[in-house]
Amino acid sequence: MLEQKYLTFIKVAQLGSYTKAAKQLFISQPAVSQQLTSLENELGVKLFTYHNRQLKLTCEGEKLLTYVQSLKVQTDKFVTNLHHPSSLQTSLTIATTMSLANEITPNIIAKIQANNTFTKLNCKIANTKLCLELVQAGKVDFALIEGNFPKEKFSSHIITEEKFIPVCSPLLGLNAEQTYRFSDLLNYPVIYREEGSGSYNIFKTILASRNIAPSDFKFNYQVGSPTAIKALLLKGLGISFIYQTVAKQELATKQLIPLKIENLNITHPIYLVYSKNSYFAKDYLNILGL
To answer: Domain HTH lysR-type, which positions (predicted)?
Structure first.
């Protein structure tokens, strides 16, 4: 079990406030300060600093938070396993991003079922940012994500790689056989995911590498659902950048067409992500045959 001063450190880091942490921990603010001072003296580093009157973690504090959060998640899971071994060993909770939910995730769930270990599966669907928060908080065993993430804060394993492509409906008047420059597409509407999604981060990186912003397109629509984006695309309402597998059926039936853009060939990894240096990592990899 973690010492109380480490739990206090986690709470202050999460809330960014000694006062709020004290209220949630049902202790006084001086007690919070005393515990953190003791921890800093023990470790010989400064964990927090103030910037523009806001409490911020130092570099050392960030490293410690990653370590102790992972340790707390694993400790809680291990203790629960000791008290309720049968229920934990037959239950699995995972998270997956919306972009992976319809194609990649069913294949992963099929592997879990074939493992014959688990009789209960809880699958949460969210964007990349929320999936990572669920892993960090210990609310899921692991997550399946396609976006970029801070690899120093999590452990991960590449499951597969998927093409990230521009697509549109033939109704928009663009030609799948022609090669376009990005500047050719700025007169068309662009449809993209919400901030916090992996697809949005990749899309933004592609544009930034060409000194382009979504606002440079004639119209830009931000939509928080891959299914809704496909519906808009099918009506010929714009261009979108998505994983090829997301529009697999629509591409096969030519309801949507892939676009060729000069010097654009993006393949991105799909990751299994779990708590940093997790004690249970081998179990997760064995479940999925990795």
So the answer is: 1-58
Same domain, 137 and 277: yes
What mean pLDDT comes out for the span 121-136?
92
- Asked if 3 and 72 count as a contact pair (C-beta separation under 8 A), the reply is no
CATH number, domain containing residue 206: 3.40.190.10
How many domains does the structure of the chain reveal? 3
User: Domain range spanning residue 32?
Assistant: 4-69
β-strand partners of 38: none
Per mean pLDDT, which range of 64-68, 89-93, 164-168 is the poorest?
89-93
Tens-place pLDDT, residues 199-217: 999 999 999 999 999 999 9
CATH number at residue 27: 1.10.10.10
pLDDT at 88 exceeding the cut of 60: no
What's the pTM?
Answer: 0.74
